[in-house]
Design goal:
With about 550 residues, the chain is of the alpha/beta class. The chain binds 6-O-phosphono-beta-D-fructofuranose (F6P).
C-alpha cells in the first residue's frame, strides 16, 4: 500500500474465511456453553491469554477452537498484520484525511525512530513531555503563581470529545494517585450549566484553565473558553492575568495566540494523533497535573507494553486481536447490536463513556476504504456502568431479555481501598455474573428448589450469554495505560476486518454545520421561509416565542 492510497481489498464477505465462518456459525449457534464446558475440562484455561499483566478469559464465549481458528484466518486474509505494521510505521492509513495514525508514537521508547514524511517524530514527543513535566512541577509545587501571587489550587480542563473524555476518565481512574489538596474539574458541554457548576465555588485567583482542543475551533470549547476568560477577568481585572491562568493544548498555535494565551504555555500535538486517541498526548496535561510526571510516565509505559504485545505476539495469543475478533463474531454472525463494558471498580466509572467515543466514533462507519457501502454490520454500540451498580439496574435484560449482549467484565485482584470484606464481595459478584450468564438455571433446577409450576418459566435463566473477563492485579497508572491500549488495538482490529477508516469522523460534521446556521437564525430574525423542514421550523419558532 502506498503512503495514502486505498488498499485493494477483496470484499469482506467474499473472503474464504468469512464464508467458512458463515457455515461454521450454523453449527455453533445452537451449542450451549453448559455443554461446551461439560465436555472439555481444559476449556477455562485454554481459552485464556495473559499479556502485559492482563489476564483475558474468553472461554465463556459461544465459540469452539474451530471458531478461533477461522477468525484468525479471517484476520490474516484481511491483512491485519500488514495493516498493523503500516500503522506502527507511520503510513497514512487514515486515508480520508490523508494522515498517519501514530498514537503509539506518544509512548514509544526515547530512542525509537518513527518517521512521518521523512521526519522522526519521537524527539518532538519527548520535547512536549518534558515541557508538560516542567509546567506540572511548577504548578504542583506552587512555584507557578497566578496574577495575584497565589499558587494554583484548582485546575479546570475545558474540552470536549477526545479532549475531555480521556482526561476525565483518567482523572477519575487515577484519583488515588492524585493531589488531594488540589481540585480538578472538567467542562465540556456548551450548556452553561456545566461551566457554572464547575466554577461556582472556585476562586479565580487560584484557578488555572487548560483549554484543550486539537483544532482550537470547536464551538463548545471556544464558547466555554471565552466564558472562562470573562469569569477570570471579571475578578482579576487585568488582561495580563490570562497568561497566568490559562494554558492551551492544541495543534493550532495561531488560534491559541489569537485567544491571548502565551504560546510558551501551549502544549502541542500533531495531526497524526486522533482526538479519541489523545489522552496520552499533551491532552493529558490535566492528568499529569493531578498525578505528577512520574505516574504519567508510568501510564505511558503501560500503553507501550500493550503496543509491543499487539505488534509482536502471534495472533492466536494476541489479546487485542482476540478481543477484536470476538466483537466481529457477535456483531456479524450473531447479529448482536451492543457490547456492555462492566468495570468492577468504582474508579473506572467513566471508562464506559470514554470507550463509547473510542469505539463508536472509530467504527461507526458504513462505507469501506474503497467507498463501497458495506453489506454487514460494523461497530456495535458500547455502553456500561460499574459493577455492582449495574446489577441492580439493567442486568435483568442481559440475563433474561431477548437480546444477546456480550459483556466485558473488568476486575482487579487487589483493591486500592481495603475496607473490611468489600473487595471480596465485589469480586465474588464479577465471577458470579459471568457464571450466571453462561450457565443460567434450568427448569429442572428451578423446580428442584420447590418453585410452583406457574412460576418456573419466570425463574429460568437460559444462560448461554457470552462474556469476557479481564483480570488485572491492581489499578495503577501503568495498568490503566495497558487497558486503554488494549481497547484501542481491539478497535483497530475490528476496523481492519470491516475494511473501514477507523480514524476519521465525518459523521459529526453535518450537525455542526446545521447548528451554525440555526444559531444565526435563533439570534436573528428567525428561520427564513423554506430554509428548514416544517418540524424544525415549528420547533425553532416555539423556542423563540417562549424563551423570553
Ligand atoms: O466532533 C468530534 C470531534 O472532532 C472529536 O473527534 C474530537 O475529539 C472532538 O470533536 C473535539 O475536537 P477538538 O479537540 O478539536 O476540540
Amino acid at each position: 500500500m502506498s503512503a495514502t492510497s486505498t488498499p485493494v481489498q477483496t470484499p469482506l464477505t467474499q473472503l474464504p474465511a468469512w464464508r467458512a465462518l458463515q457455515q461454521h456459525f450454523e453449527a455453533v449457534r445452537t451449542k450451549h456453553l453448559r455443554d461446551l464446558f461439560a465436555g472439555d475440562a481444559g476449556r477455562g484455561t485454554r481459552l485464556a491469554v495473559e499479556a502485559a499483566g492482563i489476564y483475558f478469559d474468553y472461554s465463556k464465549h459461544r465459540i469452539t477452537d474451530e471458531t478461533v481458528r477461522l477468525l484468525l484466518d479471517l484476520a490474516r486474509q484481511s491483512g491485519l498484520e500488514e495493516r498493523r505494521e503500516a500503522m506502527f510505521t507511520g503510513e497514512k492509513i487514515n486515508i480520508t484525511e490523508k494522515r498517519a495514525v501514530l498514537h503509539t508514537a506518544l509512548r514509544a521508547a526515547k530512542d525509537a525512530v518513527i518517521e512521518v514524511d521523512g521526519r522522526n517524530v519521537v524527539p518532538e514527543v519527548y520535547e512536549v513531555l518534558d515541557h508538560m513535566a516542567d509546567f506540572s512541577e511548577r504548578v504542583r509545587s506552587g512555584v507557578w503563581k497566578g496574577a495575584t501571587g497565589k499558587a494554583m489550587r484548582n485546575v479546570v480542563n475545558i474540552g470536549i470529545g477526545g479532549s475531555d473524555l480521556g482526561p476525565v476518565m483518567a482523572y477519575e481512574a487515577l484519583r488515588h494517585y492524585s493531589r488531594r489538596d488540589m481540585t480538578f474539574r472538567f467542562v465540556s458541554n456548551v450548556d452553561g450549566t456545566d461551566f457554572a457548576e464547575a466554577t461556582h465555588d472556585l476562586d479565580p485567583a487560584e484557578t488555572l484553565f487548560i483549554i484543550s482542543s486539537k483544532t482550537f475551533t470547536t464551538l463548545e470549547t471556544m464558547t466555554n473558553a471565552q466564558t472562562a476568560r470573562q469569569w477570570s477577568l471579571a475578578r482579576l481585572k487585568d488582561e495580563r492575568a490570562v497568561a497566568k491562568h490559562f494554558a492551551a493544548v492544541s495543534t493550532n498555535a495561531e488560534e491559541v495566540a489569537k485567544f491571548g494565551i502565551d504560546t510558551a504555555n501551549m502544549f502541542g500535538f500533531w495531526d497524526w494523533v486522533g482526538g479519541r486517541y489523545s489522552m496520552d498526548s499533551a491532552i493529558g496535561l490535566s492528568t499529569m497535573l493531578a498525578i505528577g510526571p512520574e505516574n504519567f510516565r508510568s501510564m505511558l509505559s503501560g500503553f507501550h507494553a500493550m503496543d509491543e504485545h499487539f505488534r509482536t505476539a502471534p495472533l492466536e495469543k494476541n489479546l487485542p486481536v482476540l478481543m477484536g475478533l470476538l466483537s466481529v463474531w457477535y456483531a456479524d454472525f450473531f447479529g448482536s447490536e451492543t457490547v456492555a463494558v462492566l468495570p468492577y471498580d468504582q474508579y473506572l466509572k467513566r471508562f464506559p463513556a470514554y470507550l463509547q467515543q473510542l469505539t463508536m466514533e472509530s467504527n461507526g462507519k458504513h462505507v469501506t476504504l474503497a467507498g463501497r457501502r458495506v453489506d454487514y454490520a460494523t461497530g456495535p454500540i458500547f455502553w456500561g456502568e460499574p459493577g455492582t451498580n449495574g446489577q441492580h439496574s439493567f442486568y435483568q435484560l442481559i440475563h433474561q431479555g431477548t437480546r444477546l449482549i456480550p459483556c466485558d467484565f473488568i476486575g482487579f485482584c487487589r483493591t486500592l481501598n481495603p475496607l473490611g470484606d468489600h473487595h471480596t464481595l465485589l469480586m465474588a459478584n464479577v465471577f458470579a455474573q459471568g457464571e450466571a450468564l453462561a450457565f443460567g438455571k434450568t427448569p429442572e433446577q428451578v423446580r428442584a428448589e420447590g418453585t410452583p409450576e406457574w412460576l418456573v418459566p419466570h425463574r429460568v435463566f437460559e444462560g448461554n450469554r457470552p462474556s469476557s473477563t479481564l483480570l488485572l492485579d491492581q489499578l495503577t497508572p501503568e495498568a490503566l495505560g495497558k487497558l486503554v491500549a488494549l481497547y484501542e488495538h481491539s478497535v483497530f482490529t475490528q476496523g481492519v476486518i470491516w475494511q473501514i477508516d477507523s480514524f476519521d469522523q465525518w459523521g459529526v460534521e453535518l450537525g455542526k454545520v446545521l447548528a451554525k446556521k440555526i444559531i444565526g437564525e435563533l439570534e436573528g430574525a428567525g428561520p427564513a421561509a423554506g430554509s428548514h423542514d416544517s418540524s424544525t421550523t415549528a420547533l425553532m419558532k416555539r423556542f423563540r416565542n417562549r424563551r423570553s
